[in-house]
Write a structure and sequence with these properties.
Length: 342
């Protein structure tokens, strides 16, 4: 059904140059993906932490127009059970600061990573980084959604490019707390459409929602279309890569977090004319963490895809493993459609 590339990982942290002196790359993962000309381009999330200093906790943040390092004495800080978070002097910080870096390939398997960031934090809404880009080519431009992290929590922002040389930021389009936003590659009834994932704090669990927009900026007609299941997807679900048009409907690869804490991939099929209608979904995962690079790492037992490219009659599914590396698995549309239930 789906085959991992035998030479995974295809991008490791050591393949990426740090953005400033004093930072070190600790993750290169969760890539958005698209084709542009004769290249396959990945928009890789690059996570950077600070070089350690004995007796101190050092955290990377964006301040005053540039990345900086905050330094605290170890006794001033408290590490939570989540290795991604630390509290110092009563304030919560991320232990790494993420940005989006481009990687380029002709064959979809061998990539060269750009030496400079493509999307880097620019203001207080992105103070703690930008993460997990998705990219959709629609109306002659590449629309990039990404998660913006700050002291006000996480939200989803939009950026637009036509050439992956310059980029125009449009700002936050889904307010906190909302992520996993994927824009469809075509308008439906004259409207842009997207899937998104608002957070739940009292009732329900994080689920996949549908929304429409006349201009990519203002979104409405929100409706929940799919909720978590049981077992491997019991805790939360979210859309992954942008939908693929097929004769049977919109094919979407999604992720689910289960009772064990592991992240898996699964598929759904949406109606072509009414994309808020779920026609089919996987009853079993498409992929679960199995390989050592998927079960061990900074945040273990994770396979997470937000980029798929059609190449040479196949689907190249790019995915992050354990918040550490970038990998690829190969399948085709027919195989994915065949493994879903009515």
């Amino acid at each position: 059904m789906i085959t991992r590339y035998e030479h995974n990982p295809i991008i490791r942290p050591g393949d990426v140059r740090p953005s400033i002196e004093g930072y070190r790359v600790v993750g290169a993962f969760n890539p958005g993906a698209t084709s542009c000309g004769d290249e396959i381009i990945l928009l890789v999330r690059i996570a950077e932490s600070c070089e350690p200093e004995p007796g101190f906790v050092r955290v990377p943040v964006y301040r005053f127009g540039r990345p900086v390092i905050h330094e605290f004495r170890s006794e001033e800080c408290e590490q939570s059970g989540d290795t991604r978070v630390v509290s110092c002097k009563g304030r919560t910080y991320l232990t790494s600061l993420s940005h989006i870096r481009l990687a380029r390939s002709r064959d979809g398997l061998h990539f060269v990573v750009d030496t400079e960031p493509f999307i880097y934090p620019v203001d207080e809404t992105e103070e703690y980084g930008v993460e997990d880009a998705r990219v959709t080519f629609v109306d002659g431009k590449y629309c990039i959604t990404y998660t913006a992290i700050s002291g006000d929590s996480w939200a989803t922002a939009l950026a637009v490019t036509r050439d992956f040389k310059s980029v125009e930021r449009k700002g936050i389009i889904f307010h906190p707390e909302n992520k996993d936003v994927v824009i469809f590659p075509e308008k439906v009834d004259g409207m842009y459409v997207a899937l998104h994932r608002p957070n739940n704090t009292l009732f329900g669990k994080p689920s996949i929602w549908y929304s429409e927009s006349p201009d990519l900026i203002h979104w409405g007609n929100h409706r929940c279309i799919l909720r978590p299941g049981h077992g491997w997807d019991a805790q939360r679900i979210g859309a992954g890569a942008p939908p693929i048009r097929t004769a049977e409907g919109w094919l979407v690869i999604c992720h689910g977090k289960g009772d064990t804490g592991a992240y898996s991939l699964f598929c759904i099929l949406l109606d072509l004319e009414k994309p808020y209608k779920v026609l089919k979904r996987s009853s079993e995962p498409l992929m679960v963490p199995e390989e050592p690079y998927e079960t061990r790492g900074f945040f273990p037992n994770v396979v997470f895809s937000n980029g798929v490219v059609e190449h040479d009659g196949k689907l190249f599914v790019y995915y992050g493993a354990s918040d550490d590396t970038t990998n690829v698995a190969i399948t085709d549309i027919e195989s994915l459609l065949a493994q879903m239930d009515e």
